[in-house]
Amino acid sequence: MAQTQTLQVDPTLMKRLKKFGAFDVGACFDCGNCTAICPLSSTSTVFPRKMISYAQLGLEGKILESPDMWLCDYCGECSRTCPRQAEPSEFMMAARRFAVSKYTPTPISRMIFSSNAFTLLFMSVTALIPIGLFAALTIPSGPQSANMFSFIPEDLIHYAGIGMGLAVGLAVLIGVTRMHRRITSGMRLAGQKGPGLKEWVKQLVPTVFKESLVQSRSKECKTNPTLSERLTGRWFNHMTIFWGFLGLLVSTALRFLVVPTNGNVVPLTDPVRLLGTASGILLTYGTLGIMVARLTKSEVSTKHTLFTDWVFLVLLLLAGLSGFVLEAFDYGSMPWLTDSALAAHLLVVFELLILAPFTKFAHAIYRPFAIWIARAYQRI
Ligand code: SF4
Ligand code: SF4
User: Fold this and answer.
1) What is residue 31's predicted lDDT score, i.e. its pLDDT?
2) Is 86 in the pocket of ligand 1 (CB under 6 A)?
């Protein structure tokens, strides 16, 4: 039997949500076209109209209990065909940002999404951490400097990276746990029985494979795409970024755990270096593709880009490019330039990671996790 729920109505909800995205659902006249046209909406997951109704009624709890904004693939079809230009797809993205700001354990996410000045301030203040460390711990490189790690010991970089990864992972874990609690409580209130452990395990593999490794829901959004559309479209760009980032993580872990440089210059043909270089190319390609689409506004889904979206994309691009510049200086035996490039590269990666739990980066974890819940509850 479904549990009863006291609904709390907040008349300021729509105003608060508007800080998270460019939409105008005040213009919506409830025609339902967006839900009818959405390729991912179904009888068990009806969106985006239902989510818009929750916002119009001031039902914050209902929004946070819904996995729907994570099931949306931001294809933009609903916005393209909305007769009132209410931008329902932008509303779905705003709902995601709103949810991330509610699930994360500090107000940082809300402040980052709603204030560009705060974003810049946060980045400037946090940048002082690596800059201070560089100043305090670096080994001055001399003309005899043999490789990039003469500037900062390789082990120090790796241990700092692990510490950073654990801190970021903890923040994301808290957020995901809160999301899980809200969504599953919403499912129970709707009368749905919780799945057993067997069902959770059964749905884990298809979720990881389909939603993260090949991101097949994105392909469902486009009817019969041509090969060229596939290779230049959102799906391909997202895939290259995902695999590029994963490849860079793996190559960094291998370098640390299996084949450390031990102070030697690593040849370009070294397998770990090759993996890192190929992954850097993928990351840079996908990021540039998305930036071009957003600059040219070539798709409905690229019409509106928040400042934080640009920050994320620029940091991703700089992470890839600074890695290549670093390699070039290292091979050119230019110690001073190598040291500067390494400092810049580490600073960019630090900012990318420290912002990860609070910005668009977070969707890489929240989205597959929400889809896993929806699968386990047989909503999709
Ligand atoms: S298509 Fe536009 S006007 Fe119609 S319900 Fe959706 S958002 Fe509202
Ligand atoms: S953006 Fe695409 S997937 Fe998302 S609600 Fe609109 S039509 Fe559906």
Assistant:
1) 93
2) yes
